[in-house]
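Reviewer has doubts. Consider these tokens.
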Amino acid sequence: MEYHVKDLSLADKGKDRIEWAEIDMPVLRKEIRKRFLEEKPLKGVRIAACLHVTTETANLMRTLKEGGAEVYLCASNPLSTQDDVAAALVKHYDIPVFAIKGEDEETYYQHIEAVLSKKPHITMDDGADLISTLHKNHPELLENVIGGTEETTTGVIRLKAMAKDGVLKYPVIAVNEALTKHLFDNRYGTGQSTIDGILRATNRLLSGSVFVVAGYGWCGKGVAMRARGMGAEVIVTEVDPIKAIEARMDGFRVMPMAEAAKLGDIFCTVTGNLNVIREEHFKVMKDGAIVSNSGHFNVEIDIPALERMAIKKRTVREFVNEYTLEDGRRIYLLAEGRLVNLSAAEGHPASVMDMSFANQALSAEYLVKEGKELRADVYVVPGHIDKHVAELKLKAMGIEIDELTPEQIEYLNSWEMGT
């Protein structure tokens, strides 16, 4: 088998961790994988996946393989790979993986090229690097592709831009837009795992600190909620007036970054945009300010500006770089500005990824059945899949809910019955 991982001797440890995560992924484990094993809906389908190589992703790969697919996996971020998981997928589950934690940019793209060389029928993306590389470098492979999926807000933004410009050549399902994904994964998963990453990297007390969250989308809501829950005073910065009002109504202080930069002890960007924290903000930050990012790409913090401003740089802890400015102030950048939750911690808990990856698996099945009928565009997850995932999750949690009575259905579908 062709693969590129750090060390196969880590495989047994990785297998134990994959099995631990599996316990908290009953939808993927019990419901979908069992049916996939029996029906083989993905038989003969080659899937190239560019995702964070974590224990949860490993269980998605196992499910796709049980469904009959040939699966090839590479990392969607140079710092997010769990090397023991990568080794376990190769050694214990015969799934080719091309990913090493801390790989440089050249190796990162070599790994993307490796999975694309398998001539995939379906692509699975987390940030759209796989799809963009395929379109730029290998137009000859596009005729093989039935469709793709995209996991993240950032990736969906990129793909919608491609579709708008008329360069997207096959249909992509925006898994991130599923209600059972962004309402839970983005809010509760990102909220908890981001705080986890910041604490593992710094071991700082959040209680009593001023915590600045840039962006109040679903991810920002989760981070703000968890930071406040640990006793921080939370400030939100926004460019969207509606989200800004929502943040204020939720009890957070709202102000421009230029003002928040003077007050914050800890900063976290979750916007999906470029240079949210930049030179003018670094100039007014407190000595000892901690800056982190939980958006997909390491562009939300203007790191080149920080490098230019610093007269000295050193690594003081794993994932913590200290930049000393000319006036003696120190600014601490976490995880090189990359996803702090996956670089310094383990990413989202398995329970919430159970729903996200259930959407991935079922969307792949849907593409096999319906992909040839779809034009090249970005699509939301079909409503029946979204609802089915929610039903399966409730069942796995042992929760029952009411059903509409025939009378209620008639009332909701009628206009004659008024006051």
User: Anything to note?
Assistant: The chain has two domains: 8-181+349-396, 188-343. The domain at 8-181+349-396 is CATH 3.40.50.1480 (Rossmann fold). The mean pLDDT is 97.
